[in-house]
């Protein structure tokens, strides 16, 4: 049976000024019972808290527990889970719609709240662990507490307009502002004022359109590539 591996590697530095060894610490796997079973994003909130998002098309086995496909969805569904630095799963939530569902990213804010970026196509509602929770057709930013309690869909105005809807995105949240990159755009959205503060676009001609593939925010500086 094929498996996709999520793993963490700890690097061990000795007193000498050269790197002597790399120590493999742990791994977690999701069974590959379907083409749609894979992880799509990871976020380190603090040294002891890791959030992971992914997708699955059938029943999957993770950390020794079997999670069935939700009956509402006919295509891929998503998952978001929290682990500690030792790889212990603290909670896992499944979410989907009735057609195409994408797990596009995960991040946290300063208070530890969790934000899960999803894309729900050809559907007018979301299903969380088998229960219908909210209407959504298109991009949506779902908020959870650090304990995994669902708190709702965050208003995002025009933040996701004209973005690439079915690919993994990168975004950060700080001081109630969302910094978001997708393809040709990088944008900043004020969650308090519910308005798009600024946007930058990369453009060019030819068959191969230029786009952003890498995005990092260190709290003060945005790095794009």
Architecture blueprint of SSEs:
Blueprint: E1 3-12, E2 21-31, E3 38-46, E4 49-56, E5 60-62, E6 65-67, E7 77-83, E8 89-96, E9 100-108, E10 114-121, E11 126-128, E12 131-134, E13 138-144, E14 150-153, E15 170-174, E16 177-182, E17 185-190, E18 195-201, E19 215-217, E20 222-224
Antiparallel strand pairs: 1-2, 3-4, 4-7, 5-6, 7-8, 8-11, 9-10, 10-13, 11-12, 13-14, 15-16, 16-17, 17-18, 19-20
What does the overall shape look like?
Answer: globular
Which secondary-structure class do the elements indicate?
Answer: mainly beta
Q: What's the N-to-C terminus distance?
A: 36 Å
Helix fraction bin: under 10%
Give the strand tally.
20
What is the radius of gyration computed over CA atoms, rounded to a whole number of angstroms?
18 Å
Strand order of the largest sheet: 3-4-7-8-11-12
- Ranges where pLDDT stays below 50 over 5 or more residues in a row are 1-16
Order of helices and strands: EEEEEEEEEEEEEEEEEEEE
- Summarize the main sheet: 6 strands, antiparallel
